[in-house]
């Protein structure tokens, strides 16, 4: 039983490629408990597939983000770049009042760029679970401070939701791991392993759901280009992100992920 | 009357002993009077400290804001309304405030801060915050020209956390009232240290107009903080302010309908229920002090009376034998205790009141008890001098309680003496 470390992609995902590093405990459970059930695939292969699905050395994307809150709806147009596993930059293009506002992530930390002040402001680690730019995503979705690698173990099972059968990757924290969620469930289509629904649980209670749809072929791989995140305590609220453009493995200048580079693209 | 005469004569027979008992009673009462004045003074100082720099004594918000402070739950406050509040008798000043929560910091470090937008002059008149500036200066009367960074005065804890001093730049980044993202460049012009921990560690002050721009709050405020002349009359002032604004006093009871845009006026007792509750509990604990101090005095009286009664057993026996009624005997002895109690209590009350009066006028130098001249306790600032609060109640209560204690502790020796059987007692045989 080998223990390897690999990475798979999460959430705001493609744009930022925040990598989900996960230790495979190769929870090679006996295949399907129910007799006629198809045999479970190897946990390593599934995680490898998910890794490769979103893995790219760099990316460039244009997205629309709709934040639906009790008090109103905000429509934002975002542009993002990523490079390697650490560097990422998201710039708000619209609406005009907020244009140029940006979030920069490097291996040294996470910052917001305040265009009016023309300054970066560090987002302290204590604020990681706070809302990102007023949406239902959290700063932690962007930086993934919680280490899946050290804190969680993965296992596979079959599950059924509304008559559909899915492959479920369940992440459970190791004993005494300092985690926000006590369980994560990733639901994938049984054959192609396309992400469908990710569930975040705390103390056995569902607190957040992310759903994926609008699957299209990007670089020959089927990828969901729309994701919706819903907090369960505010049933009428949600944030929808839709990719308008997505390019993987395009040349992205390393200089972009510096104050100077950021200023250049944020101002444009 | 005869009982009183007999009692006094008995007391005079052993002046040394009676004097000592009297002194014990006087010291106990004096100590209580002094302590109560000290504690009441401390409560006053605490309330003043708790309300002065931050909340002031009366506040106005929308009911929704009190329920859940959200940037969009502000209200419009026009000049005539503000003027009508200031005309309310007992109101010294009123400061309209915008309150925002967001990131304040720079590229190296940041923290979540409470951003208060204030009119520098009105805030200065309402709270002593402008006097608490330890470096730099308070906000200028007018904000700088639009091309300049906005002026900000930061709490000392914020300055320490962000490692900034006057002249340094800061950035603020927050979610505005309309859900959009506001940001601006700030320049630290001053640092305040109020001693109010929450304020010093979390609060920064901007010009009202700058905070409105930042929070997308044209013409709105979240809070009107009102300073009243008399702490103890805050509730009355709140009622009068409510009448002037056409607002309600206190939050609506129950949590039925979600509170809306109705204006709510609240005195400090309601704004800071914790402080009010603490005062109630604190006052109850006075009885522990009574118990400790008066137990000693009671033991003194009991001991003296018992001793003196035992000494006079044979005498009592003779008196009973020649026809003194037990009830008379009992009364005489109770009167003895009573006289000691009354005299001692009066002397003690006079002494305690005199000392308290002195400390009320000149204050007690608290630096005797602590290295720091001014200190902060539970987030409340205290100056080095504590001024006592001497009230009639603080004097009368210890005296009355002492009378009760004195009579009670004289009871047992009196009962024992009244039950004497004359024959064996005169014969010298013990019971």
Please supply descriptive tags for the structure shown above.
heterodimer; A: 268 residues; mainly beta; 13-stranded antiparallel sheet; 5 helices; globular; disordered N terminus; B: 431 residues; two-stranded antiparallel ribbon; 53% helix; elongated
Could you describe the 3D structure shown?
The complex is a heterodimer of chains A (268) and B (431). The N and C termini of chain A lie far apart (52 Å). Chain A is mainly beta and 268 residues long. Chain A has helices spanning 13-16, 43-54, 139-143, 148-151, 259-267; strands at residues 5-9, 19-23, 58-69, 72-83, 87-94, 102-106, 109-114, 119-122, 152-161, 164-173, 183-188, 195-202, 205-218, 221-231, 238-248. In chain A, the strands form 2 sheets. Chain A has a 13-stranded antiparallel β-sheet with strand order 8-7-6-5-4-3-15-14-13-12-11-10-9, with helices on both faces. Chain B folds into 2 domains: 2-51 and 280-427, no CATH class; 94-221. In chain B, the strands form 4 sheets. Chain B has a 6-stranded mixed β-barrel, surrounded by 4 helices. A two-stranded antiparallel ribbon of chain B has the order 2-10. A two-stranded antiparallel sheet of chain B has the order 14-17. In chain B, β7 and β8 (181-192) form a beta hairpin. In chain B, α2 (15-55) packs across α14, α2 (15-55) runs antiparallel to α15 (392-418) and α14 packs antiparallel against α15. Classes of the chains: A mainly beta (268), B alpha+beta (431). The A-B interface holds A 67, 69, 71-72, 74, 92, 95, 97-98, 101, 111-112, 114-124, 127, 131, 133-134, 259 and B 72, 103, 105-112, 149, 169, 171-173, 175, 178-181, 183-186.
């Amino acid at each position: 039983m080998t223990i390897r470390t690999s990475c798979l992609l999460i959430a705001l995902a493609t744009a930022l490629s925040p990598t989900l590093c996960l230790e495979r405990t190769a929870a090679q459970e006996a295949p399907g408990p129910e007799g006629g059930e198809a045999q479970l695939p190897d946990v390593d292969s599934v995680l490898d597939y998910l890794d490769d699905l979103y893995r790219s050395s760099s990316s460039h994307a244009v997205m629309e983000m709709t934040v639906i809150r009790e008090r109103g709806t905000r429509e934002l147009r975002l542009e993002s770049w990523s490079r390697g596993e650490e560097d990422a930059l998201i710039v708000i293009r619209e609406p005009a009042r907020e244009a140029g506002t940006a979030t920069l992530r490097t291996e040294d930390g996470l910052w917001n760029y305040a265009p009016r002040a023309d300054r970066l402001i560090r987002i302290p680690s204590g604020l990681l679970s706070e809302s990102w730019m007023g949406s239902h995503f959290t700063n932690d979705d962007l930086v993934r401070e919680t280490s899946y690698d050290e804190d969680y173990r993965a296992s596979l099972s079959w599950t059924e939701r509304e008559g559909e059968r899915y492959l479920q990757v369940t992440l459970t924290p190791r004993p005494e791991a300092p985690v926000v969620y006590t369980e994560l469930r990733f639901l994938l289509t049984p054959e192609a392993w396309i992400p469908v629904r990710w569930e975040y649980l705390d103390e056995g209670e569902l607190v957040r759901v992310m759903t994926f749809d609008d699957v299209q072929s990007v670089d020959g791989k089927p990828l969901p280009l729309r994701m919706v995140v819903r907090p369960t305590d505010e049933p009428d609220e949600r944030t929808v992100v839709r990719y308008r453009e997505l390019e993987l493995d395009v040349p992205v200048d390393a200089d972009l992920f510096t104050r100077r580079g950021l200023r250049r693209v944020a101002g444009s | 009357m005869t009982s009183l005469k007999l009692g006094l004569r008995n007391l005079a027979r052993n002046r040394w002993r009676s004097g000592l008992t009297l002194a014990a009673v006087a010291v106990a009462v004096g100590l209580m009077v002094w302590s109560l004045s000290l504690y009441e003074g401390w409560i006053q100082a605490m309330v003043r400290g708790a309300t002065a720099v931050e909340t002031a004594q009366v506040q106005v918000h929308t009911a929704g804001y009190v329920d859940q402070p959200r940037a969009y739950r502000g209200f419009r406050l026009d000049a005539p309304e503000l003027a009508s509040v200031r005309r309310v008798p007992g109101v010294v000043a009123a400061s309209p405030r915008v309150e925002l929560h967001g990131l304040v910091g720079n590229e190296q470090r940041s923290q979540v801060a409470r951003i208060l937008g204030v009119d520098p002059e009105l805030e200065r008149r309402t709270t002593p915050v402008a006097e608490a500036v330890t470096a730099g200066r308070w906000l200028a009367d007018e904000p700088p020209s639009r091309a300049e960074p906005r002026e900000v005065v930061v709490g000392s804890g914020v300055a320490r956390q962000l490692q900034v001093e006057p002249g340094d730049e800061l950035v603020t980044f927050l979610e505005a009232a309309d859900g959009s993202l506001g940001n601006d460049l700030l320049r630290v012009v001053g640092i305040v240290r109020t001693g109010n921990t929450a304020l010093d560690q979390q609060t920064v002050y901007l010009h009202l107009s700058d905070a409105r721009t930042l929070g997308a709050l044209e013409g709105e405020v979240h809070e009107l903080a009102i300073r009243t002349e008399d702490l103890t009359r805050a509730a009355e002032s709140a009622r009068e302010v409510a009448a002037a604004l056409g607002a309600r006093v206190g939050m609506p009871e129950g949590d039925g309908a979600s509170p809306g845009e109705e204006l709510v006026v609240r005195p400090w007792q309601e704004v800071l229920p914790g402080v009010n509750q603490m005062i109630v509990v604190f006052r109850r604990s006075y009885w522990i002090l009574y118990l400790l101090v008066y137990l000693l005095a009671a033991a003194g009286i009991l001991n003296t009376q018992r001793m003196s009664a035992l000494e006079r057993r044979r005498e009592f026996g003779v008196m009973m034998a020649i026809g003194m009624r037990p009830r008379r005997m009992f009364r005489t002895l109770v009167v003895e205790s009573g006289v000691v109690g009354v005299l001692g209590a009066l002397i003690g009350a006079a002494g305690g009141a005199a000392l308290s009066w002195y400390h009320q006028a000149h204050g007690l130098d608290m630096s005797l008890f602590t290295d720091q001249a001014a200190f902060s306790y539970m987030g409340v600032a205290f100056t080095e001098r504590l001024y006592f609060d001497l009230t009639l109640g603080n004097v009368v209560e210890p005296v009355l309680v002492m009378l009760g204690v004195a009579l009670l502790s004289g009871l047992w020796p009196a009962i024992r003496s009244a039950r004497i059987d004359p024959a064996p007692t005169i014969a010298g045989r013990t019971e």
